[in-house]
Every structure is written in structure tokens, then in C-alpha cells.
Amino acid sequence: MEIGDWKATAELNSIYRQARELGLETNLAELEAFGFTIVEPGKAAPKAFTDRMLDAVLAVAEREDPKATALGNRAQSEKPAYGRQLFHLAAKDPIFAEAIMNPTALTLGRYLMGASARLYSTVAFLKEGAAGCTNMHSDSVGMPPPFPQYGHVCNISWLLTDYTRDKGTFFIVPGSHRLCRHPTPIEQPKMMGGVNDDEIGMPIEAKAGSLFVFHGNTWHGTYPKKDDGVRAHVVTALARNYVDPAEDFSDLSDDLVNKMGPDFARLIGRNAWQGYGSEGPRYERIIAVQRANQSPAA
Ligand SMILES: [Fe+2]
């Protein structure tokens, strides 16, 4: 059927039309039903683009001191994940801004987070050599349960190398977004120290260049990595407009923001209506959010 300019779905009509145009309707259905989806390599962006992203991640890793981050100087037992996490990538190479603005990534993210979505974080997960599991969790960090059925954050992961079980891919529990809570420690699978059978979840097996997107409620972790190779993905996470983003994007250069355009500026919180003092809110900024929800392509 044709999607009209229906009043009750004013925030959704054009996102849905865009999803259809990009051939993403199956991905929307999978997100609804199971809380995750995979876009095959070459569909969101040419393989050459994700190869360039991998080069950019490795270049950032090369020039940054692993001990210089808040997580990097802690013992492995105190870290939430093995390997390195390279934070705040949006400020480090323009290719990450391109990934954020990629039409497929943005359409799936905005379907989940609303048209007025904000950028939440831009982080690479890089593992070289063997690594242990990351425990099962939801990305609704710090959110008190129960969760609503709709997500407050969504994870948009650009897989830059081949992901398989032995290469330490994601462990995911299909449909767990419907449980609307964090997993408890005892619910961890055995390989992560809990009592559940490891088969409560499944591996995300996908080639380099795939886009793996999941709902913020969905339970996931990672399998142990057994090979010596590089495993890398970049997350360009989005959140609902009222969620405090994990990263502060105020240091992004005006040059970059001007080059990427007003949609990017809104995503990174330039001209956000929140954060006012005694002067009170600037209503034109509130109206801009309302307008974004009704006409995301504008
Ligand atoms: Fe996570």
C-alpha cells in the first residue's frame, strides 16, 4: 500500500517511506520481532567505505595511548569488554561523520529512536589476538527497570572485519527486547559465569561490511575470541531526543558541522533546547524538535 501523510503517524510516515525506498522493510520487521537485524555487506555502503573505516580505526588506535582512556588504565577484570574501546570517533576522522549520516544507518536508527533522535556515542571495539567474553547485558545503560517496549537507545554497529563465533562475534538473545529489563547475573550463560545454557543466545555471523543494528533492550554480549586476527566494529549509537548522550559532541569543529549540514548539527545536539538557565528555553529550538518529528527529511 501507499504510505500517506497520516496524522497519527506524522513522525513515522517519511521514515517508513525512506525505509521502503532503501529496501529495508524486512529489517524493520526483524527489529520489531526479534530486536535486531543485519544489513548485508555492500547495501548500506560500498565495501571500500567500510575498509576505509577500518583503516581509520587502526590509525586512531596507533596514535592513541591505550592507557590514556578512563577504561584503558584499569585492570581487565574491571573492564566491561576485552580489547580496546576507542571513544569519541566523531571528532577524530570525517569518515565517522559519514557513517553517522549514512542513509541506511540513519533510517533504521530513526525508525527506532524517532525522527528527532540524537547521536549517543561513536566508539570502536578493537580486538587483536585472543580475548574473553563480554557478559550479556542490555545497552540501556543505567536505565531502571522496567523498560518500556520501545528503546531509548539503539546500537548501530558497522562490522569492519568478518564476525564469526571463533572470531569473538556478538552473542545475542533474539526477542529479549520484549523482556523489558536487564539480565540478572544468574541469567548469564554458563560461558559468562551464570547458570543458563549457552544456547539461550546465538552468534551474529556476518561478513565485513555488514551493518548490525539492535534495539537498546536486546540482551547481548560477545563470544570468546580464539584467533590471532583483528576484529573491529564501530558503533554509531542513537538515542531518543530526551536521553542524555553518552558523549559530549560540543568539541566537533564548525568546519565539520558546516560540511555535514543541519541534520548532522541537530543529531550532535547543536541548538538543543535542553540545558538552559534562568533565561528559560528558546522556543524556536523546541519547535525545531517538534518539526523534526513531523518532517525528518526537512
Ligand atoms: Fe553492549
How would you explain this protein's 3D organization?
The two termini are 24 Å apart. Helix 1 (13-21) runs antiparallel to helix 5. A six-stranded antiparallel beta sheet has the order 1-8-5-10-3-2. It is of the alpha+beta class and 298 residues long. The protein has a single domain, classed as Jelly Rolls. It has helices spanning 13-21, 25-34, 47-63, 94-100, 103-113, 254-260, 262-267, 283-294; strands at residues 36-39, 84-86, 118-128, 134-137, 153-159, 170-172, 202-203, 211-215, 220-222, 230-239. It is built from eight helices and ten strands. The radius of gyration is 19 Å and the shape is globular. The protein binds fe (ii) ion. The site of fe (ii) ion has 3 residues, from loops.
Can you give me a brief rundown of this structure?
This protein has 298 residues and is α+β, with helices and mostly antiparallel strands.
